[in-house]
Amino acid sequence: MSIFFHEQLYRSPELMAKIAEFPVTICGAGALGANLTENLARSGFSQLTVIDRDRIEERNLSTQPYYKSDVGAYKAKILTNTIYRALGVAVNGKSKELTPENCSQLLRNAHLVIDTFDNSSSRQAVKDYCQENNLACLHVGLSRDYAEIIWNDKYRVPSAMNDDICDYPLARNLVLLAVAIASEVIIKFVARGEQNNHTLTLDDFAVKPFIA
Predict the structure, then answer these.
(1) Which residues, in sequence order, are bridge partners of residue 25?
(2) Could you tell me where the beta strands, DSSP code E, fall in the chain?
(3) How far apart are CA 86 and CA 63, in angstroms?
């Protein structure tokens, strides 16, 4: 029996086969990126790449799928190992910093790029490269009780004024809700080419279409 038995019953074998062969690159392996990578792998995606230069810190453990024993190790490497042990899915983990100079190298094999970075300069690099190369790109971000899932043509990179990546409030439930919605948006894109944009707030539990 396939480990994706229940997902296949819901999606159909034809869509699961399409998902399995669809190359996706996730930029960032933090709260959003790591959980999204794991969720996509558990949904049947097997052509996954994740890019992140950071190492795991103890404060990451409540919102990211890492263990105390992982503290100090590279996020991309540990995430790769964890998913392989769990599912036998070989994620291509790259412990590198993505910059405008190496975008072409790190993103060249993707059919879809997912930006979950927590700083404006990296988000801008992803947006610009994907726009210039007509590459599908979905941005997933959050702040306090708000999150958004927005495709590249509608996305506006946030101001760098709030780029203090070490000190901001973050609710695990908002992370998981954003990951669930982003995953469904990604699957609908693979299935039918749909590009749906959403905003959500945890405080009033509202999920709405994003209208630019």
Answers:
(1) 49, 113
(2) 24-27, 48-51, 92-94, 112-115, 136-143, 146-151, 198-201, 206-209
(3) 19
Question: In whole angstroms, how far apart are CA 19 and each of 11, 34, 66, 175?
Answer: 10, 19, 25, 23
User: How high does pLDDT run on average in the chain?
Assistant: 94
**Which pLDDT does position 38 carry in this prediction?**
98
The amino acid at residue 209 is P
Nearest CA-CA partner of 186 in 6, 10, 41, 50: 41
pLDDT digits over 103-161, tens only? Answer: 999 998 899 999 999 999 999 999 999 999 999 999 999 988 999 999 999 999 987 76
Whole-number Å distance between alpha carbons of 47 and 73: 23
The Cα–Cα gap between 195 and 197 comes to 7
**Which residue positions in the chain have pLDDT lower than 70?**
161-167
